[in-house]
């Protein structure tokens, strides 16, 4: 298609859409929701879609934003990574949304990045991830490694006296990068390389006998041992079952997980898991008025007292409120204005503090370590003193320690502080 | 005898005496300092509380362990929260209870258990004394030596006594004791010969004292050797266990694909249906007859067979029968069926994992020498072999089995002998599907019950059947176990990901050499 034809075509679609929209109702602000509703990731992402619908609904009850009502546009990328890019394009080009909340896995985020850059739209990404990225059009409301992995390891070192580490993960980009950062961090803390065991398993791994027995052997070297698990969702159940069956209790070898939350535990008999740990920025059990209200609204919206809340849901809550404030401040939903308005926006989080959007498009969060209880909830045993600022580029990897991200002053996601240039590494 | 009893009584007395006796200000100060400081500092406080021998110690520590001990922020008063809020030291009721629960973590919990162990070392119940010795063994503390030694001296039960000897030994190793005693302690620990012994002794191999270092190194050497030998046994067991899972998943496919030649991509989803049947049965039992929970799997097995079998027959009658002889179309159509089944389960039960509990007889493990055998894996192995035996019996010894084999070997001839081939086709497919349902019951015990359950087994199942030789169920058995064992021997060296790849490549090469698998079926059936 030639350029001219393309523009004509686009204009045609746009006018068509405009006319139908005008015909249907007054002008609304459209919010895209890009979460898988089918396929393997549906287990985690369906809930996030529901949370978005709830937040939009609540905002409309308050009269929308700047007098305009919000309208959710939900699409299903079906856990299929290339389809994420297609659906993102569809949301922005065909449905003309002003902002998109979505993605879960890193690979799905990576696949939509070029789309958001090209069409200059906004994505809020609510899940903890491996860092090493900062993109102008993306706002990362989940935890960066320094907001989850590093504090969790600090806790185990200081409070449980752990000296030997098993880094177990599913074989893909998030665990690999996180473990690389953790390994560098631990060695920097004086842990000998032979006291670190790294193990990767395929997606959905279900036969954990050998690995659990390896962990037991590794743990019998006379030093307190812990497992840092970046094992992905589904493989966790058989892993914990095997731990329980082989008699590895949390008091002997605690497992701290970065991907196990209330939602994952909901399908699980938690008796063998009691005492194992998870590190997040939010737990459903946190006792604050904001959280109580959020849980009540959620359970009323979804129509079940059984449904739990979890960390990525809070991330969407924070991200959505930040976006609302930014649009109110900018007085428009136009992407460039909102992107410029977002850094510095402050909204309350659900754990009793306020989160701020930073210049690097990450946010400040508290870090909590919780122990699994027999009712599938977490009991907070430790938390950071104040809020931790999300760091896009890890300080513990030599190649990214020199990089910094600042979209306010420097207008750059990967500014090299040594060479004083933008574009030190790929985003 | 009387004297002994009086002694025991004197020892037990502090435990049962009322709060009137022996109250020390030191104890009060320790309890008040419980809510403060880091977990490790509080662990030390817990130990000190136990060593005071104060009669209130056990109740307070138990409350702390159960999470029913609280503190009133404003005054620092320590209170027990159940049944009604009361001062932990005096027992006086506290009217306004704005108490915050005192947090406990794993490390502290271990310390509390050890401290409670010290308090229950003289319990009349040998099982409790054994647990106490165990707790002391797991959290070595030289300060407990005197108590452990006293308990060891008066203990009469041999099992408890030997455990106490080990607990005393770790306490000796933890503290400043003469070298001769330490060497003796190392011998005691070395006799255990297991992972715990290895864990305790490893630091002493680098001891500054050459005698101790030598004793520890020698002990570690022999432990290492026996563990290595047991390691092989363990690998074989893991292999058998993985093999049994593969066998269960593949055996139904050995019928539909192996015997009938239908490429059934929905096989995994039939397994999933079996798992969801188990879930439904367990839910019903939980709500209506919790007492039957241990029987849930036995009840679920025939139901899962029927459900999956019925769906199988429906697939055969509705789709597959129109496509016999058109492999590609069958493949695509059944793949479509698999997606439909997945999404309908997702719509009915939701996308989340469903909780399927292990009955008590399938939980936990037992030790064979240095090897840990988990009950659920053992039962699954037995179940897989039982299903295989029944299937073999049906195929070889019953009229139905005879008809099935006849139809697949020579359809026109079987038809002219008066066999209703259509009916037999449906029945054979239903049998394969039903067995997949049975596999689902077993897999629900070790894997997630989610709509994706089947996907993770379909490739493995085809691999086993192709490797074993299509059309031969003995081949499936051999294929499943050899793949399982090879995989488990590779895993410790190559890692789980690489092990899978190596096995897959090996199978591809093997199929190049022997296209019909391990046990090729000879004769006319192959040409047909």
From TrEMBL, chain B:
Residues 1-22 form the signal peptide. The keyword Transport applies. Keywords: Amino-acid transport, Cell membrane, Membrane, Signal, Transmembrane, Transmembrane helix, Transport. One of its GO terms (cellular component) is plasma membrane. It comes from the Bacteria. InterPro entries: ABC_transp_permease, ABC_UrtB_bac, BCAA_transport_permease. GO terms for molecular function: transmembrane transporter activity. Pfam families: BPD_transp_2. Belongs to the binding-protein-dependent transport system permease family. LivHM subfamily. This is Urea ABC transporter permease subunit UrtB. The gene is urtB.
């Amino acid at each position: 298609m030639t350029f001219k034809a393309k523009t004509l075509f686009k204009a045609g679609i746009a006018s068509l859409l405009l006319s139908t929209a005008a015909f249907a109702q007054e002008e609304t602000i459209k919010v895209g929701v890009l979460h898988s509703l089918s396929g393997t990731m549906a287990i985690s992402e369906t809930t996030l879609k529901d949370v978005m619908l709830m937040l939009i609904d609540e905002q409309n009850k308050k009269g929308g934003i700047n007098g305009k009502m919000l309208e959710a546009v939900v699409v299903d990328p079906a856990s299929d990574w290339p389809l994420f890019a297609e659906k993102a394009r569809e949301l922005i080009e065909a449905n003309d949304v002003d902002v998109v909340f979505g993605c879960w896995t890193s690979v799905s985020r990576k696949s939509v990045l070029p789309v958001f850059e090209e069409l200059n739209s906004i994505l809020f990404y609510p899940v903890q991830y491996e860092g090493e990225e900062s993109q102008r059009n993306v706002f990362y409301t989940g935890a960066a490694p320094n907001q989850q992995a590093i504090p969790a390891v600090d806790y185990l070192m200081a409070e449980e006296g752990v000296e030997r580490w098993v880094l177990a993960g599913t074989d893909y980009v998030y665990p690999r990068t996180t473990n690389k950062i953790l390994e560098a961090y631990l060695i920097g803390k004086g842990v000998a390389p032979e006291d670190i065991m790294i193990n990767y398993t395929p997606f959905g791994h279900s036969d954990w006998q050998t690995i659990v027995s390896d962990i037991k052997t590794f743990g019998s070297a006379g030093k307190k041992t812990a497992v840092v698990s970046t094992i992905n969702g589904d493989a966790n159940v058989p892993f914990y079952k095997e731990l329980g069956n082989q008699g590895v209790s949390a008091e002997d070898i605690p497992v701290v997980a970065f991907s196990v939350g209330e939602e994952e535990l909901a399908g699980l008999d938690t008796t063998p898991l009691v005492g194992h740990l998870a590190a997040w920025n939010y737990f459903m059990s946190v006792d604050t008025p904001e959280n109580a209200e959020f849980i009540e609204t959620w359970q009323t919206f979804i129509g079940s007292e059984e449904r739990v809340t979890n960390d990525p849901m809070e991330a969407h809550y924070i991200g959505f409120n930040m976006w609302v404030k930014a649009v109110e401040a900018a007085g428009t939903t136009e992407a460039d204005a909102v992107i410029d308005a977002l850094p510095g926006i402050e909204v309350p989080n659900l754990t009793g503090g306020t989160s701020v959007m930073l210049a690097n498009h990450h946010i400040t969060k508290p870090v909590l370590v919780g122990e699994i209880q027999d009712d599938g909830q977490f009991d907070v045993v430790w938390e950071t003193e104040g809020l931790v600022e999300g760091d896009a580029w890890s300080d513990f990897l030599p190649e990214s320690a020199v990089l910094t991200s600042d979209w306010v002053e420097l207008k750059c996601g990967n500014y090299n502080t040594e060479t004083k240039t933008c574009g030190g590494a790929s985003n | 005898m009387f004297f002994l009893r009086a002694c025991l009584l004197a020892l037990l007395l502090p435990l049962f005496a009322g709060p009137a006796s022996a109250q020390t200000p030191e104890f009060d100060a320790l309890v008040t300092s419980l809510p403060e400081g880091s977990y490790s500092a509080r662990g030390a406080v817990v130990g000190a509380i136990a060593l005071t021998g104060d009669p209130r110690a056990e109740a307070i520590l138990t409350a702390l362990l159960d999470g029913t001990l609280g503190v009133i922020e404003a005054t620092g008063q320590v209170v027990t929260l159940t049944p009604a809020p009361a001062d932990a030291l005096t027992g006086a009721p506290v009217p306004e209870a704005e108490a915050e629960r005192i947090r406990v973590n794993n490390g502290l919990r271990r310390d509390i258990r050890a401290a409670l162990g010290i308090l229950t070392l003289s319990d009349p119940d040998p099982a409790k004394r054994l647990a106490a010795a165990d707790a002391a063994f797991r959290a070595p503390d030289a300060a407990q030596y005197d108590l452990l030694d006293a308990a060891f001296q008066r203990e009469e039960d041999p099992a408890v006594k030997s455990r106490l000897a080990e607990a005393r030994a770790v306490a000796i190793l933890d503290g400043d004791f003469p070298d001769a005693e330490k060497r003796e302690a190392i011998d005691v620990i070395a006799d255990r010969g297991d992972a715990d012994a290895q864990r305790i002794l490893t630091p002493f191999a680098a001891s500054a004292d050459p005698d101790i270092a030598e004793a520890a190194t020698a002990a570690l050497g022999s432990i290492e050797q026996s563990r290595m030998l047991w390691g092989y046994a363990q690998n074989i067991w893991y292999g058998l266990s993985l093999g049994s899972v593969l066998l269960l998943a593949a055996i139904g496919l050995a019928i539909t694909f192996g015997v009938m030649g239908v490429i059934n991509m929905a096989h995994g989803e039939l397994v999933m249906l079996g798992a969801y049947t188990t879930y439904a049965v367990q839910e019903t039992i939980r709500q209506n007859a919790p007492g039957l929970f241990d029987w849930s799997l036995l009840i679920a097995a025939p139901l899962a067979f029927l459900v999956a079998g019925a769906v199988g027959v429906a697939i055969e009658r509705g789709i597959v029968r129109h496509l016999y002889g058109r492999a590609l179309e069958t493949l695509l159509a059944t793949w479509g069926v698999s997606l439909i089944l997945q999404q309908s389960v997702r719509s009915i039960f939701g996308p989340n994992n469903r909780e399927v509990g292990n009955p008590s007889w399938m939980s936990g493990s037992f030790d064979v020498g240095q090897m840990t055998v988990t009950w659920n894996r053992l039962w699954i192995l037995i179940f897989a072999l039982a299903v295989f035996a029944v299937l073999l019996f049906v195929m070889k010894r019953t009229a139905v089995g005879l008809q099935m084999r006849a139809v697949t070997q020579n359809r026109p001839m079987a038809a002219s002998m008066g066999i209703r081939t259509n009916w037999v086709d449906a029945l054979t497919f239903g049998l394969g599907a039903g067995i997949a349902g049975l596999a689902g019951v077993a897999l629900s015990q070790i894997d997630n019950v989610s709509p994706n359950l089947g996907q993770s087994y379909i490739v493995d199942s085809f691999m086993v059947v192709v490797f074993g030789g299509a059309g031969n169920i003995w081949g499936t058995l051999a294929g499943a176990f050899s793949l399982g064992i090879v995989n488990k021997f590779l895993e410790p060296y190559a890692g789980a990901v690489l092990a899978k790849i190596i096995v897959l490549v090996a199978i591809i090469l093997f199929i190049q050499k022997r296209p019909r698998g391990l046990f090729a079926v000879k004769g006319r059936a192959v040409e047909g």
